[in-house]
Design goal:
Siroheme synthase; Rossmann fold; multifunctional enzyme; 17 strands; alpha/beta; transferase; 5-stranded parallel beta sheet
Length: 468
């Protein structure tokens, strides 16, 4: 990387653009918006620059070196390469900041792509290698960045010294601002343009005690791109993360680097952390005033004991939120080309778990053994023989198609298919985490499968130990 990203105060500084066309106009708009004292040298001005003529000095001339006198920044933006080269060479010999519009590789400075919510600015560049990628990133950030964050930045600037005086450590200040930014009342005030009311709200919030909070976050079925935007935001704000072992390394890498990580899932040679201990950890961490994320695979409320954890938090008076995730039944089946419902094959889908509490009752097998429905079973591998037997006993045809989706939505995804009478033997061919799907819809994978996992990819050694 040859260029160092810097923000330079350009207001009132003398800047020169050589050229009068569209490229010059784009550079001029950027400089004028930041208060530059702009001169443009060009024999004629294009329509865009002509509309801005009252905002700069126009020298109706060809480039001569004396126009570089006392300039701070120079832009070579003509449609003639030889002129741009002469401007660049002359400015470079004088030690001036110079941008050569047709050759970013040789420019002393380059104009980055910018996303603005004044005074907030995000600037980025590919160094001239892939301008299309910079434009794509700018479009995405423009869509994601709240429109009122410029007002938030201005209000925060007014109260910065008061916050510094009220909170002794940088961690306390960071926590205050993270929670303020997340507050619905403050965001509504700013979105409505009521900045004075937002400022008063923040002043009052400074004096309130900082209470802990737990956010249950669904990490989805495996593919990190299936993580929701809200889930990503919470991972970036977390101070403590209690995570399940099945959460992918790619998603773990998105967590705020300073956050404390606590593994509470299954590891090789060890039992899972007991649920009672997980509950205690959540309460203990939140009672210290921290923002705690409980990161679960899939969706927290889909066989994830999320409700049990919330009941404990509610009893302890701990504030909480829930961020839904894409559950395996939706994610893994979609990646396998298996629709959960279809007008010709299944008018309903039923989700059950192969695990239950020790004293749990057997499911209603008669209702599960219905035709023209899709049966999705989580964590069912160890009970596959029992499931097979009970469904056939209650009338479901032994020839009913089934599919086992191993490591769904990941590069190691593998789909094993057969009939209900083969379910127990099929289960011996896959490892956890695997999803069991029973019903006619599984036959559609022949024509609808689209995801191309790594052919012949083996389960990583670490994962093989983890799931053993």
């Amino acid at each position: 990387m040859e260029h160092l990203p810097l923000f330079i105060k350009i207001k009132h500084r003398p800047c020169l653009i050589v050229g009068g066309g569209g490229v010059a106009a784009r550079k001029a708009r950027v400089l004028l918006a930041r208060g530059a004292r702009l001169t443009i040298v060009a024999p004629q001005l294009g329509e865009e620059l002509a509309q801005l003529q009252s905002q700069f000095v126009w020298q109706n001339d060809v480039f001569e070196e004396h126009y570089l006198d006392e300039q701070f920044l120079v832009v070579a933006a003509t449609d003639k390469k030889e002129v741009n080269a002469r401007v660049y060479q002359s400015a470079n010999l004088r030690g001036l900041l110079v941008n050569k519009a047709d050759d970013s590789k040789r420019s002393a400075v380059i104009f980055p792509s910018i996303v603005e919510r004044f005074p907030l600015q995000l600037a980025f560049s590919t160094g001239g290698d892939a301008p299309w990628l910079a434009r794509l990133l700018r479009a995405r950030l423009n869509a994601l960045l709240p429109k009122h964050w410029g007002d938030l930045s201005r209000v925060a600037g007014k109260l910065r010294h008061k916050v510094q005086a009220s909170f002794a450590s940088s961690e306390q200040r960071r926590r205050f601002w993270a929670r303020a930014q997340d507050d619905a009342t403050l965001n509504n005030l700013l979105a409505q343009g009521e900045t004075a009311a937002a400022e008063r709200w923040l002043e009052q919030a400074i004096t309130k005690p900082q209470l802990g909070e737990v956010i249950l976050v669904g990490a989805g079925p495996g593919d990190p791109e299936l993580l929701t935007v809200k889930a990503l935001n919470e991972l970036q704000k977390a101070e403590v993360v209690l995570y399940d072992q099945l959460v992918s390394p790619e998603i773990m890498a998105l967590i705020r680097p300073e956050a404390e990580l606590i593994a509470v899932g299954k590891k090789a040679g060890h039992h899972s952390v007991p649920q009672d201990r997980i509950n205690e950890l959540l309460v203990e961490q939140a009672q210290t005033g921290k923002r705690v994320v409980r990161l679960k695979g899939g969706d927290p409320f889909m066989f994830g004991r999320g409700a049990e954890e919330l009941e404990i938090l509610k009893a302890a008076g701990i504030a909480y939120q829930v961020v839904p995730g894409i559950t395996a039944a939706a994610g893994a089946t979609a990646y396998a080309g298996i629709p959960l419902t279809h007008r010709d094959f299944a008018q309903s889908a039923v989700f059950i778990t192969g695990h239950s509490k020790v004293d749990g009752k057997e499911p209603n097998w008669a209702s599960l053994a219905q035709s023209r429905q899709t049966l999705v079973i989580y964590m069912g591998l160890m009970r596959s023989a029992h499931i097979q037997q009970r469904l056939i006993e209650h009338g479901l045809s032994a020839n009913t198609p089934v599919a086992l989706i191993e490591r769904g939505t990941t590069p190691e995804q593998r789909v094993v298919r057969g009939s209900l009478q083969e379910l127990a033997s099929l289960a011996e061919q896959v490892v956890s985490p695997s999803l069991m799907v029973i019903g006619e819809v599984t036959t559609l994978a022949d024509s609808l499968a689209w995801f191309k996992p790594q052919q012949g990819a083996a389960l990583p050694a670490e994962a093989q130990e983890q799931y053993a």
